[in-house]
Write the structure tokens for this entry.
Amino acid sequence: MSHVHTTEALHSPHGDAHGTSLIAFDDFCFAYDDVPVLRHITLDINAGDSVVLMGDNGSGKSTLLKAICGLIFPQRGTYRFDGTEVTERSMRDETFSKRLHSRVGFIFQDSDAQLFCASVEDEVAFGPRQMGLSEAEVTRRVDDTLALLGIEPLRMRAPWTLSGGERKRVAIACVLSMNPDVYCFDEPLAGLDAKTRDWLLGFLKQLKAAGKTLIIATHDQSLADEVADWFCYMGEYHGYDDRPHVHVNE
Ligand SMILES: Nc1ncnc2c1ncn2[C@@H]1O[C@H](COP(=O)(O)OP(=O)(O)O)[C@@H](O)[C@H]1O
Ligand SMILES: [Mg+2]
């Protein structure tokens, strides 16, 4: 794979995958108020890809993840998920927005920003309930998810009484219980103890092996080494010559 150093060259390691990618940004521009944060992003991610987003603090990684999840919308350009343009208007269609939220999971950097229910059980049940599943199916999903993540003993605990590592597992459980196709992780290892980091690294590899699409913003070298199929650099390029990479937001 030749290196890609210009916007004129390939924008995706897949080459010309137009119309077939699961996640497709085309000239996507976003500003908070008048401050441009995402500039002319053109990027394609295929189903099953593991992409690591790299870039300095403030380069727009978290904002790009928010766009993928339909939490912000472009002032110019487009983002399509599985062929459908994600806009403020398309997200007002409840069928579409529920579908996007159930297919694309977002694990925030700060678990506290994600957890708001009175118990772990309610927290993990929230997504499946929003999807309109039967209570029997919701219960089955909660049981399976708590068992899979080894947090059954935390079931009746209030999230704010948990340790940082426990909260991260619960935040992941909330997404896992919806069984999405795409997992967006924002700095997943930041602030975790060694034991939780090891567990999470193994879990990410399991998701990858299961064919999930992973989009991970991280500065962590070992995480990048172990899971990235390719890299997306936000802004300046610094690193990894051994694997495909693209640059956006230059
Ligand atoms: N809610 C917000 N309102 C205004 N500016 C924001 C907001 N969130 C992020 N920004 C700004 O957008 C830029 C990109 O932020 P972010 O996407 O969080 O970058 P990264 O995740 O790469 O550190 C930063 O300059 C940041 O200050
Ligand atoms: Mg960030």
Summary: The two ends are 21 Å apart (CA to CA). The first strand starts at residue 23 and ends at 32. Confidence is low (pLDDT under 50) at residues 1-11, 15-19.
